[in-house]
Amino acid sequence: MTLDFDDVLPHIGGWGKYQKLLFWLICVPAALPCAFHGFVQVFMNAIPPHWCHVPELAGFPLEAQKNLSLPYEEQLGELVPSQCNMYDIDYVQLVRENVTWVANVSWPKVPCTRGWRYEHKLYDETVTTEMDLVCDKNWIGMMTYTVYSFGNLCGNFIFGFLQDWLGRKKAFFICLTVETVFGIATAFAPELISYTVFRFMVGLTVPQIFVIPFVIGIELVGPERRGFTTIMQCVSYSSGLLVLAGVAYLVRDWRNLALATSIPFILMYGYWWFLPESARWLLSKNRIDEAEAIVQKAAKVNGMTVPPELIRKLMKEQEKGELGQLLPGKARTYTLLDLFRTPNLRKKTVLVSFIWLVNVIVYVGLSIYIPILGESDYVNFALSSAVELLSYPILFCVIDRWGRRWPLCISMMLGGVACIATVLVPSGYLEPTIILALVGKFGAGTSFTLMYLFSGEIFPTVLRGIGIGFSELVGSVGGVATPFIVYLGYQYRDLPAFIMGTVTLVASVLAMALPETLNQKLPETVEEAEEFGKNQPFCFCCARRKPSMDDVARNDEDLAAAKSSDETENL
After folding, report:
1. Which residues of 248-279 are buried (b: 16+ CB within 10 A; e: fewer)?
2. Rounded CA gap, 7 and 552, in Å?
3. What CA–CA distances, in Å, run from 293 to 220, 287, 297?
4. 60-83 pLDDT tens trace
5. Residue 181 near residue 265 (C-beta atoms within 8 A)
6. Taking the model in full, what pTM does it have?
7. Which stretch of DSSP H or E encloses residue 470?
8. How far apart are CA 538 and CA 541, in angstroms?
9. Angle subtended at Cα 320 by Cα 319 and Cα 324, rounded to the nearest 5 degrees
């Protein structure tokens, strides 16, 4: 029998006091900075209602100014005052002659020539209003989203590599430093270029600031608790989005909002003294003594005992499974290419990456798209975050009964159909469109949660950081395009949702080709990952099983046999 790290967990406790303290006090709160920095630009870049500034009419009531200076234009099926054009007339003369304050629709029209005025009902100041990024410049605001998403793309690769090279702990604090420094710097950006550069740097850390603690958490708990820990971290993330809506409502100046969503996370540097390195990662690097120290500490806190021979035997079994013998004190270095060397692991890598791509497009796209549909950005964003929280009780009920694969497929199908159905809503009816988009966000949030869990279980320990990082790297390519998909909604209301719904349905079908991972041991080596799921039936669904003392007894028997064999060899 081949032992791996999952064979150690019954000895230390797969969900003991040590894991609970680590999870609730460190891993769960670490999801908050990802939520804040991931979507604070929805509010910092918000485009409030605006209209052409006409100084000659400044002394008159606002409605009178609009009636006289703004032509009506069709927007999303409704006639509304223009936000980008004005009548080209002599307003000084008009004020003297026009006592009825009614415009003549035959007057010539021109784009705004002397700037804009903005409604301050929802915002005191945004990047858009401060830098006049409206009308023929409104694409620039979306471009800053794209640059930020390009930072996500680069950061997923960089921090995916760093956490497998330097370890999870050091990579997390490097990530936290970059996010905090440039998040605060955003508040002091003097112009558009520096603002864009600072958002790119913050983008490097999202979602890795969430993923790295997630990897530490999932690697230290038993198979029966992986679903629970994944969902609870996502609950923390979605709760963070709700908190962000409240913070943005209270702090309506974009510079102050940048500070309010960055400074509090300086407190997380206190984690340095409590956050352990991943024992699985240490073992993959042949750092046995450090891994054993963490395992022994966890066992002690949990009131259990780990035989010293267990870790040594684990390393021997892992070394035998490698594609070549390791020299004492040496550890093989793995690269991205190892994900594609063998056919089964290659297939799973491609499928996981594509589904991640679709999830990013739909999840991020709907998170930006839904707030622009209604009267209040804060309410709509809060609703789109709340529907994610509704998905978690359902996941709790099904994830350890139906597994990961079928809930993933069903949630994506539901979200895809809802998004496509928005094209059936007549123009001028926003409420049904918002409801269908919220159903789509419910499906996207559910599938995103499942993909975090799926990715962590499919990739082997030696490539887990690189594998998840690569999948998110591919997903970030979709993030780069997402702002421009949403931008289409300003001209064609339902087109963004239709595009997102179509790609979601395609991904839901492809997800059926992934193996079920419920209650399966995490693959440690490339060889184990290649064999995992290779001959699994299409309708496979594991029955839930909790580790028992029989697991411990069987491991003890294996250890005794191994020790006896070693003593015989020495004789």
Report:
1. bbebbbbbebbbbbbeebeebeebeeebbbbb
2. 8
3. 14, 10, 6
4. 888 888 888 899 887 766 788 899
5. no
6. 0.81
7. helix 464-487
8. 9
9. 80
